[in-house]
Amino acid sequence: MDDQKSVTIPIEINDYLWTRYMPETTYKVYILIGYLNEQNIVGEEATKTILDADIEEKNTIDKVLEQKKEVLGKLGLKYPENRQDDLDLLVNFKLINIDKDDEGNTVYKYNIPVERPEEVLELDEEELKVLEDIKFELKHESALNMILTLIINNNNNLLCSVDHISKTTRVKIAEIREVMDYLVNKEGSIKIKSDKPISKLKKNDKIYISVNEEVFEKKRLVL
């Protein structure tokens, strides 16, 4: 499948965070189906190409693997052991459609438009919160990285003004407040001492930041 690099998949797969629920092999089968579509491969050849595909997990660290198994398990879904399992997952996710063309050939197609996980899967409140947190982290990824790097480079303890953080990280103060509130009140990975609530902090206000190491190590390693 030399042309796999040129396969275009719907941007919603990443935007809607479907990758949280797709093991590496399932994601690769999804790409393979895009390749079959672009090459107009249908029928027995398409089915054989998928089921016989030599696809392995190569980029998964243990904690990510455990997390995906846990997420799928909570949804009552089997972690894939072969390509048929990957196909079954994609069908359950309503990401693909297996149909017949006018000549009776089996055709594997992307379902367009792509639905959101919240619309397809029975997600509990805890999982919905996880999705919300991941979306926040993606939106503020640069600010999170810059601020956390500053804290870590100061031995996990930082006493300074909000203005110093802003100038050092080049993150605007409004976003600093958002990120700090998330890290303190939602995630709990850092602690802040200040004369004001986080939402009221201004450039000249001094704050003391320390890392809650137990939470930090757990939350910052796996999203």
Describe the structure.
With about 220 residues, this protein is mainly alpha-helical. The protein has two domains: about 1-125, Arc Repressor Mutant, subunit A (Orthogonal Bundle); about 140-220, Cullin, Chain C, Domain 2 (Ribosomal Protein S5, domain 2, 2-Layer Sandwich), CATH 3.30.230.130. The protein contains eleven helices and five strands. The chain has helices at about 10-15, 25-40, 45-50, 60-75, 85-90, 115-120, 125-140, 140-155, 160-170, 175-185, 215-220; strands at about 95-100, 105-110, 155-160, 190-195, 205-210. The strands form two sheets. The chain has a three-stranded antiparallel beta sheet with strand order 3-5-4. Strands 1-2 form a two-stranded antiparallel sheet. The two termini are about 30 Å apart. The model has no long low-confidence stretch (mean pLDDT about 90).
Q: What is the ordering of alpha helices and beta strands?
A: HHHHHEEHHHEHHEEH
At the first level of CATH, the class of the largest domain is: Mainly Alpha
Average pLDDT number: 92
How many whole angstroms does the radius of gyration measure? 22 Å
Number of domains: 2
Strand order of the largest sheet: 3-5-4
What gross morphology would you assign?
elongated
Summary tags:
mainly alpha; Ribosomal Protein S5, domain 2; DUF6042; three-stranded antiparallel sheet; 51% helix; 5 strands; Arc Repressor Mutant, subunit A; 223 residues
